[in-house]
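Field reference: sequence -> structure
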Amino acid sequence: MSRPTLPVAVVAIALISSSVAAWQAIGRAEPSPAGPCAMQSDIVGTWKAVSGNYGGRAFSFPEDPITLKHVTPSQFTVVTFDKDGRVTRVIGGTYTLKGNAYEELPSYGIGGDFDALKGKPQTFTLRVEQNRWHQAGTISSGLAIEEVWERVGRQ
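Structure field:
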């Protein structure tokens, strides 16, 4: 039985809207000069996937579909959508950040990779340089990944 696409799109838009609203409210705060809060303020916001390396294979993200990562002080959401706004993938949940150790714990989503990742910690090292977020690690399926995300909106 196929699932209707409209409710998925509505849920995805609601998730995106809440993430953006949280970022707008919190993103204006001045970053702390030291400690984990300074790094957290570096990652809160909206990011667009620009390139990656998956299992040793380089990948450049196309202009269509677009993959965005929305990060609030406690949650993340990754959403992929096409030029017509049709959502094809959503994954999200909580994250922790300790120094440059970043760990996502997916708890909701749709798409081919969600079932394999749900409830399993995905651990990465990260660095933010200007408007680029670099993350690398091995996800719970055993796939080594490196990704580069570019900040959207705030410069």
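Note: The radius of gyration is 15 Å.
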